[in-house]
Amino acid sequence: MKRFLSALLVVAAIVALSGQPARRRVSLLVTGGTVITQNAAHRILAPGALAIDGTDIVDVDTPAAISAKYQAAETIDARDQIVLPGLINTHTHAPMVMYRGLADDLALMDWLTKYIFPAEAKTVSPELVRVGTRLAAVEMIESGTTTFVDMYYFEEEIAKAAFEAGLRGVLGETIIQFPVADAKTPAEGLARAERFIKEYKDNGLIVPAVAPHALYTNDKATLAASAALARKYGVPIVIHFAETEDEVKTAREQYQMTPTAALESIGVLGETTIGAHGVWVNDADIAILKRTGTGVAHNPESNMKLASGAAPVTKYLAAGVKLGLGTDGAASNNDLDMFEAMRQASFLAKHATHDPTAVKAQDALDMATMGGARVIGMEKVLGSLEPGKRADLITVSMRSARQTPMYDPVSHLVYVTRGDDVRTTIVNGKVLMSDRRLRTLDREQVIADANRLAARVRDAVAPR
Amino acid sequence: MKRFLSALLVVAAIVALSGQPARRRVSLLVTGGTVITQNAAHRILAPGALAIDGTDIVDVDTPAAISAKYQAAETIDARDQIVLPGLINTHTHAPMVMYRGLADDLALMDWLTKYIFPAEAKTVSPELVRVGTRLAAVEMIESGTTTFVDMYYFEEEIAKAAFEAGLRGVLGETIIQFPVADAKTPAEGLARAERFIKEYKDNGLIVPAVAPHALYTNDKATLAASAALARKYGVPIVIHFAETEDEVKTAREQYQMTPTAALESIGVLGETTIGAHGVWVNDADIAILKRTGTGVAHNPESNMKLASGAAPVTKYLAAGVKLGLGTDGAASNNDLDMFEAMRQASFLAKHATHDPTAVKAQDALDMATMGGARVIGMEKVLGSLEPGKRADLITVSMRSARQTPMYDPVSHLVYVTRGDDVRTTIVNGKVLMSDRRLRTLDREQVIADANRLAARVRDAVAPR
Description:
2 copies of one chain form a homodimer.
Chain A: H1 2-18, E1 24-31, E2 34-36, E3 44-45, E4 49-53, E5 56-61, H2 63-69, E6 70-77, E7 81-85, E8 87-92, H3 108-123, H4 126-142, E9 145-152, H5 155-165, E10 168-175, H6 186-200, E11 206-212, H7 220-233, E12 237-241, H8 245-255, H9 259-266, E13 273-277, H10 283-292, E14 295-298, H11 300-305, H12 313-319, E15 323-325, H13 338-353, H14 361-375, E16 393-397, H15 409-415, E17 422-427, E18 430-434, E19 437-438, H16 443-461
């Protein structure tokens, strides 16, 4: 005790002698990188620094100003790196990493009915979902995703694995008309969803959601019941919509409406609805999405690989529809790298509109950050680096040959950066990866577990 | 001498006692990986091994068979890796890495006339070309490209830098109607090209070529003179063609023909011609390309980023046109990663044809290997791992989370692998990179030199 008091006196003396005020103690500093804040003014500090305390960003300023004002238990040196908001993946099915590359280059219905559905019927289990989510978490943390929107089975296992990994998630339990691994009927699925919502509704990282799979895989009553459940608890709805041209045909036959209009008529759309794909929409549909405040998750890689079409991204942006980016599940992509999603969003929009000025690098980065935050209704706490917001951020190396020279950091983030360039991933103020070392997951164990279960998946689809 | 003889006797005794014949001494073994040979039967050895002696592959077999037959000064352990032919980039402008990200998201003519041409006019020099090529060489070696087809200015500097780096190149000196950094007139360019051809025509790595820039940037006489020069020395012609819809319009006005037909009429097409882009071709044009034996370099990323259109890849493949992949220059891509080019070739073809079965993973890999070899007329010595062919090969790690699990190595190469996964790059039997350490280039020096020159480029395009 005496020794401690002496030390304290020495510190006080040093502060007094240096003429500087005592610095505020915070939990974490990130200093020295080019800080791309993604705030409303698109402010970039080169170099910049952040002070983080607990779960929140408390200050963004120059390195000198931050070091004068704060001291922290841990400091991350981000020199030669870009510091930016963590990327928000607005549409995926995390455990489907277990099926990546299982079957490619097939027509959508062949792919689903000959490979994915049979593989899922035989192999989806709480264990596979848990192991798959851990593998997806490794991949997401390593590639700079800090928040993901999910829809799958045994979503409570996904929530548990994501929470343990430290990732933020908007996680929707699937509601679907036919029997699936975790529910024989939609009613069973809804009951499971309600239990899941109750368990997670006050969690600081996990937002539970209801995920009616799509218009064409649920009847009207199930869709309405799903929407009612979401409204009862004030949680998001996650749904696929207007992904393929076939879906438009089916909706016209069944509802005499577009998928978008049909979903609105059933009460599925709204401020807390996250609709994935939105490829086949007309101008009236876009107006519906804007009016209802529905968020759209654009998945350029999945849409290209499955030849679904090109979502009218420039029209969405012009109309002010909430627009985020997603990777979709790894069975149809085949990875969870949001840097690829940004690049593809830009490339596909330019190609589809015959306009090289469409979806500029900055637009793609906006979609992956603030856009995603708006889609999930968390724009007040996520999507940019500003005091008072949650500390969800990443640092990205810029020292590769392919990133040399660097004239424009935003161009480089979108056009030449890979998920593997991410060095640090921080969610809710907690460092999940530092200098590419994972802190919340045992990487080798996760990969070994995934490879062990993959043998079962391989057997399940093996021709007899 | 006595000691040497004793040692020899001991070795002989061991061989005699073990009952095994003496193993053939070779220069290099690569053993233990999944060997994707890309031979006509698409044979895959899992695991496999290669014996390399001097510049050539002498054997491809199981690891046990190879180790029984050969001993080598150096052995590369490729366990957990895929071994495949080095990738052939059939279209780039290597030194343009110096302009990557300098200006993006612009209409083609704005991009060229406001940024690229002014930057080139003020900064292209032998030094910039040398430094830029070294930077490009680092990037290519690190991302698994072993051969590149180039078109730029001061091509002799590119040849020198590529040769020193140990890369294989088909390198075309640019012929263009207007004054450029290395030639005031096309005649000067042709004279420079002839000197370059004479200097390099018997080089084991570098194939010199004549590169008339395009139909729309050269008059008929210059194009004919370029073709004549190439024929005189039996060297390839490298040219841009049918890249944009505007180019078709211009050709119709000037020649009352498509660009492809016009180039044929001038005598530019043929078995040794490498035409880049080929986006705007009709069925008659495709027949011309097939009949003349002209090779096509497909550049999906550049075509998407500049909104040029989608080359009819499936038609080219159906017609049997020689088809390879290219990255184009890094100013319009923005990198030289051939894994991205493969992925984009598949994605873009699926999207453009509305057919998810178009350009399967295997098709994309074929284009980047044997297809590229055919385009450059080197299919007898490059493009696959077979005894008697040149030892141009790479090993690629498959241990990342995004590559887990692995059901199909070819799917993984195309859909989830990045250039950064390449561990070993071998050209002409020489190891240019081992375990990601470069052996022929001083990486830090190359990057420092590039950053130094980049400051000049930045000044050259700075608004006044």
